[in-house]
Design goal:
The protein has one domain: Cytochrome c-like domain (Cytochrome Bc1 Complex, Chain D, domain 2). 64% of the residues lie in helices and 0% in strands. Helix 1 crosses helix 5 and helix 3 packs antiparallel against helix 5. The chain is mainly alpha-helical.
Length: 101
């Protein structure tokens, strides 16, 4: 019986780790759409805004403002509408965790 419990606990922990990794990978997929303008991992080329290491709350507010039409944009207002508010929060957290250039 004890052996079965150990296997169940180990299986649950393994599943949780896989789920967490899948979530991280999904955020990276969403963030990859930003690379065209803001560079890989948010490290933009000259002339574009770098996202790496920026404050996640400020970044999220900008994204929400784009999404809701409160901030003018050329393309960001369209792109941001393709994500839920929670997804935008996860994307903001991802870029905030990246090292600055």
């Amino acid at each position: 019986m004890k052996r079965t419990k150990k296997w169940l606990v180990a299986g649950a922990l393994g599943t949780a780790a896989l789920w967490a990794q899948a979530e991280v990978n999904q955020v990276r997929v969403w963030a990859a759409a930003c690379a065209n303008c803001h560079g890989t991992e948010g490290r933009a080329l000259q002339g574009m805004e770098a996202l790496a290491g920026k404050d996640k709350d400020e970044m999220l507010q900008k994204l929400l403002d784009f999404k809701n039409g409160r901030k003018p944009a050329t393309i960001m207002h369209q792109l941001s509408k393709g994500y839920t508010d929670e997804q935008l929060a996860q994307i903001s957290a991802y870029f905030a965790a990246q090292k600055k250039q």
